[in-house]
Amino acid sequence: MSTSSSSAPSKTLMDFFQPPSKRIKTTPTSLSIPNATDANANANANANANASSASLSVDQKLRVDYNKHLAKSKRNLKTCLDRVSNSEGVVKLEELLVEDTWLEALSGELQKPYALSLSKFVESEICSSSNDAVYPPSHLIFNALNSTPFDRVKAVILGQDPYHGPGQAMGLSFSVPEGVKVPSSLVNIFKELKEDLGCSVPRHGNLEKWAVQGVLLLNAVLTVRKHQANSHAKKGWEQFTDAVIKTISQKREGVVFLLWGNSAREKSRLIDATKHHILQAAHPSGLSANRGFFGCRHFSRTNQLLEKRGIDPIDWQL
Predict the structure, then answer these.
(1) Which of 172, 231, 268, 278 is deepest in the core (most CB within 10 A)?
(2) pTM value?
(3) Active-site residue (options: 15, 82, 161, 196)
(4) d(CA 205, CA 279)
(5) Where are the stretches annotated Disordered (predicted)?
(6) Catalytic residue at 15?
């Protein structure tokens, strides 16, 4: 179902996003039984509210939708952080996946024998090391799933394992927190975005805005030991993230999978190409970006595919 066509740059949809206004506190009043006049007044008020909602522009509706899901993502993050902070020991992996839609979609996955062994391994790695020797921080291990609900997934960008330098990993593939130097692969992603859609190159590498819009930024392995790439590979993470991909393939339709590099391309075997779109290219690393990543136009192609299904496109501008 993938397509090789390209189009003119998509318009930026998120330039108008502002934090939602504060709610006005009201003084509670005693309960009373409404009379006919009150009922008519309420009906008129509801009609006016509906008319006002209907008159919202496309940009305003997108802003409201984005802010609603950003708030949910922040609540999930706080829940994880509280569980880690309030724990007397190491929190079990199953307690760090808190997004309800994924808990339902992956029901029982983290109770399987391989996942229990994986949990014990990660716990032992954290316990036997210093506080910052396993990345990302515990509350961010499932950040990709906690930030992008199952029923919101529009596209999937697969990575390998987390960045292994201090302060880099944040549980979203290719993403780093604001204030951290943007890694070379992400620099090349931004270069392709500029050529493809005319996006200006951001000063940071935090891709949270993509995740909240429905881009699942999923690594194949979700933890790593400090300064040791692939140190947590083949411990069970691959089986779990394969289950995530297969679940999306089986239970959803029309999702765009962006597979960059050989490791990601191998995951195409898990995806039903009759139901989903698979876009493949070279990895954006400095070693391979010139061998097929630059010029792939995956960002505009993703939006074309989404729009054909009547789905709001991704605003890739950060």
Answers:
(1) 172
(2) 0.83
(3) 161
(4) 23
(5) 1-30
(6) no
